[in-house]
Amino acid sequence: MAKKPNLIFICSDQQRQDTMACYGNDWIKTPNLNALALRSFVFKNAYVAQPVCTPSRACIMTGLYPHTAGPVLNGIALSEDTQVIAEMLSSDYLCGYFGKWHLGNGDTPQHGFTTWVSTEDGYAGRFVRGGPLSHRSNYHQHLVDSGFTPDRKMGEIDTFSHDKLKTYPEEFQMPLYLGDRAAEFIEENKDKPFVMYISCVEPHSPYIGPLQDTYNPSDIPVGPTFLKKPEDVSLLHRLKADYYLQYLKSGDPSQDVYMTTRAASGEDVTTEAGWRALRAHYFATVSLVDSMVGKITSALEKVGLTDDTIVIFTSDHGDLLGDHGMLEKRSFYEESARVPLLMAIPSLTKTQKEIGDSFSHVDLVPTILDLLGEDIPGHLHGQSRLPVLEGKETLEGNEVIVEWNGIREGHVDERRITPEIDRMNHSMWRSIVCNRWKLNLCTGDQNELFDLTSDPFEEHNLFNDPEHIDRIRDMTARVRMWQIRTHDTVELPDV
Hints:
CATH topology: Alkaline Phosphatase, subunit A
Largest sheet: 9 strands, mixed
CATH class: Alpha Beta
Number of helices: 16
Helix content: 25-40%
Shape: globular
């Protein structure tokens, strides 16, 4: 019997789509991702299930929308009773997980993964245990063993600050560490079928690291919405833009805990030049991710497994980087909700093939199971897109749903965001993308309709245009039918 195909799933954090050549970026230094794309299915319109870390990762791992998987907010752990893909695979596969878990305690092997390499992701120690040094993450231990000393305390936990980590050489950065551990796993298990998930924190904010001088900020291209407050859109987005852009007008950002420690740590947000530098630093961290990918693909080539291994690359959400006057994610704007997705499947293609219609992350688990010749559980929300990859079907007219389920209580106290933004962040949203139209619905805010063909930067909200009332009603009805199918109880506005 022929050996089953291997699978390597690589997930970066907060990586927007326009970060490699196959998506139109001809200046970024991502040679390994570019090489992977040249032998991959390149999804031009891949959307996350929810544009924030934990809910998106829950969908990627379970094949369920966040409202069913359970982690609808950051900080909510995935239930032990909820299956992830490793628990759906037959015993033929050895399963390994490397890096940021963000679905509960990240230092403990769980959910069917028998090989586990943990990392500290800097989230206030939420998923990092105290106790003896031996109980720290594998990455923490690696740094200590390499002669580095933790420089801060989070409660009783000694850890490494971002400011300290950025001073270490490239080979000690988390992506490179994960690439090395993944390469070791490949070498050790080259004779048996394996599934491995690798997840790094980069290019998530703070946008820091040893490659910060890679790109000239003045040369970094920007689009028409860069540092431009959106008009005639949701109150939430207008409030956020006012908040992020305030220091371009006046004020001292050094007193803003959220801006200085989360959204733009160490970045100058008082000038346009500073915002351009922020973008340059972000793209530099993407180049770190690329180096990790290179270690993994080189390891496959070294042991002769390139043609026997499916490699998938994507991210859990994007980053606005000043577009629409905002930073980070938590938005349905394309820069936040649309991400890169590459599928290198040697048995189906060895050249680049583009898939142009909309694809949802909820379809990843069933598609992967189908590719591996495994049974697909009936409870999954997504469906296998193997027929699309085989050229038997298309994604034309495919409906993609993106959720927003609010933000955890106490956000305003923890991060010093304005009370009004905190209040609006708790509003529930549902978005549908179909035939390149996008409808964003919220009972407590201004609804939005964008024509992504004629208005790719989403500058013109057409929701109140009478010409589109039938389209809005039809798309709303489609969302309501999706709600019935997936048992989603969020209240939507009457249209």
